[in-house]
Amino acid sequence: MATRKVAVITLFPEMFRAIVESGITSRAIEQNLLELTLINPRQFTSDKHQTVDDRPYGGGPGMVMRVEPLAAALEASLVALGCSRQQARVIYLSPQGEVLNKKSIDTLLSDGPQTAANFHLVLVAGRYEGIDERFIEHYVDTEISIGDYVLSGGELPAMVLLDAIIRKLPGALGDAQSAEQDSFETGLLDCPHYTRPEEVLSTKVPDVLLSGDHKRIEIWRLQQSLGRTWLRRPELIEALELTELEQRLLDEYIRQHSNAS
Ligand code: SAM
Q1: pTM assigned to the model
Q2: Ligand 1 centroid – CA 106 distance (Å)
Q3: Is there a catalytic annotation at residue 85?
Q4: Active-site choice (27, 42, 167, 233)
Q5: pLDDT tens per residue across span 3-59
């Protein structure tokens, strides 16, 4: 039996309705592919205003999240996950962390006690100027960023990470193949997609997709993936060792592309 549990420490648990109530993520949670618990550090304060932040030592603008409510929220998260501190991975969503990509998601689910079938993750969403550095030093295993820009809080990054993890769980997607064909899964970008009608915006669907010839369609899609990746993300192509067929398809794509432009 798989055990996949995630606790999120957040001052805005209501934001996670986007994950809990919509689409693939909602269905995965309903089907118990993953258990999600939301913990608000405000529950662990003793003052009337449920204060979780304070002014920064040394002065300067903004507020900093205090250690004590976060540490208590972490304890409560471990209870909810039903595991020890050693069995859990504590991730702080932070613009200063390693930038999230397919590889880092895979690594996260194959590191130490964490596997794709059994994982216990605690995601910490910061707010204000961030969280007291001592909490990070003492409790955080990994800092993850979703890109080189700063958001107001770690909730959206935590949801991005959750969605990316959930898509990888067996049974989460209606059609198991669609995850395998996603961009980055094979190191390439996905091919273009079309649906009915055959002609719209004065543009016809490429003939090959109407041919019913599955082998030709597969080859065409592979060539489109190679070509798109070469055009949009050449560094991804450089990182791959292409097969003879792939190299031939890419060369042909490049020739056609240069003739057209
Ligand atoms: N002062 C911090 C800095 O410049 O590194 C930024 C704090 S930000 C306003 C508040 C919180 O949003 C952070 O604690 C973090 O949890 C989250 N956050 C902001 N941008 C992020 C990003 N690119 N990736 C992940 N988390 C982010």
Answers
A1: 0.95
A2: 23
A3: no
A4: 167
A5: 999 999 999 999 999 999 999 999 999 999 999 999 999 999 999 999 999 999 999
Ligand 1 in reach of 62 Cβ (< 6 A):
no
The C-alpha atoms of residue 54 and residue 31 are separated, in whole angstroms, by: 40
Q: Is 234 a catalytic residue?
A: no
User: What is the tens place of the pLDDT at every residue in 163-216?
Assistant: 999 999 999 998 766 777 888 989 999 999 999 999 999 999 999 999 999 999
Q: Does 41 contact ligand 1 (Cβ within 6 A)?
A: no
- CB of residue 129 inside a 6 A radius of ligand 1: yes
* 118 close to 4: Cβ distance less than 8 angstroms: yes
Nearest-5° angle of CA 32, CA 36, CA 38? Answer: 155
Q: How many whole angstroms separate alpha carbon 171 and alpha carbon 28?
A: 8
The strand pair at 89-99 and 118-125 is best described as parallel
User: In the chain, which ranges are E strands?
Assistant: 3-9, 35-39, 53-54, 64-65, 89-99, 118-125, 142-145, 199-200, 203-204
What's the gap in Å between 167 CA and the centre of ligand 1? 24
Structure tokens belonging to residue 35:
């258990």
Verify whether residue 113 is a known catalytic residue.
no
81 φ, ψ to 5°?
-80, -15
SS3 annotation, 154-200: CHHHHHHHHHHHHHCCCCCCCCHHHHHCCCCCCCCCCCCCCCCCCEE
Q: For this structure, is 167 an active site residue? A: yes
Task: Report the alpha-carbon angle 144-43-125, nearest 5.
Answer: 10
Show Cβ contacts of residue 99 under 8 Å, excluding neighbours closer than 6 positions.
Answer: 145, 146, 147, 148
Q: What separation in Å is there between the alpha carbon of 50 and the centre of ligand 1?
A: 22
Question: Six-digit token pair at 39?
Answer: 């913990």
